[in-house]
Amino acid sequence: MRIVLMVAEKPSLAQSIAKILSKGSCTSRKGLNGACSVHEYSGSFQGQTVRFKMTSVCGHVMSLDFTGKYNNWDKVDPAELFSKAPTEKKEANPKLNMVKFLQVEARGSDYVVLWLDCDKEGENICFEVLDAIHPVMNKGSVRDQSVFRAKFSSITDTDIWNAMNRLGEPNRNEALSVDARQELDLRIGCAFTRFQTKYFQGKYGNLDSSLISFGPCQTPTLGFCVERHDKIQSFKPETYWVLQAKVFKGKDTPLTLDWNRVRVFDREVGQMFVNLAKTSKEAQ
């Protein structure tokens, strides 16, 4: 019987998808890394009866870092990180042994269905998984497609089954765009973090300069925070009026009604609504 390995981005997602596709008839066990479970069941795939193995990763399998000496702050000029410093892929979390775990579960598989998140990061993780498992999968005919990509937007029975019945292929260009972004983040972030940390050390007594981090994502976020802070500091309060109405019925606790308009900044307009309320017999 042929084997189909299916990989999701998180253990909880793998469990949910397996439960839907197996209609609750799957068996589960812990993987060798202790973090990811494997859910197995029999079913139909590409017109044949197969054994499904559904498992997951825990986010990115690999991360990008500089090689050897370029991680030494004292021996490397931060400017060298933009051009001379080579990079390499390393396991994102070595304690999880994710590459070994994937290879153990993928050994002897004939097909793989990738259920990673439907964004560029998920597309990048697709190829991280494929790089790990390709060497141990069964080699089929050159004409046979063995790699499939599931596209889904929610974890409902309908959406998951639609994704399973309309499998496509992973997008390498989107994955490569993430590789490029990761390298830019690494080079820019490390270079400026090292530069400004060393620059500010000892300059200000009240500044904790053990590490002053910089990142392409942090900079615009800091801009948003500063902009919001400036708006708060420059805020000038303005007088406004509200309409408060209470409904009484016998000795019951009065019911306070909410005003759909909430507030007005013109007193005369507020008075107009008060007058209308006083003459009204019904309220919604």
TrEMBL record:
EC number: 5.6.2.1
Pfam families: Topoisom_bac, Toprim
Keywords: DNA-binding, Isomerase, Topoisomerase
Reaction catalysed by this enzyme: ATP-independent breakage of single-stranded DNA, followed by passage and rejoining
The Topo IA-type catalytic domain, residue ranges: 171-284
Toprim domain mapped to chain residues: 3-153
UniProt xrefs under SUPFAM superfamilies: Prokaryotic type I DNA topoisomerase (SSF56712)
Keyword DNA-binding: yes
PANTHER family per the UniProt record, alphabetical: DNA TOPOISOMERASE 3-BETA-1, PROKARYOTIC DNA TOPOISOMERASE
Purpose of the protein: Introduces a single-strand break via transesterification at a target site in duplex DNA. Releases the supercoiling and torsional tension of DNA introduced during the DNA replication and transcription by transiently cleaving and rejoining one strand of the DNA duplex. The scissile phosphodiester is attacked by the catalytic tyrosine of the enzyme, resulting in the formation of a DNA-(5'-phosphotyrosyl)-enzyme intermediate and the expulsion of a 3'-OH DNA strand.
Annotated family: Belongs to the type IA topoisomerase family.
Name this polypeptide is given: DNA topoisomerase
Biological source species: Ataeniobius toweri
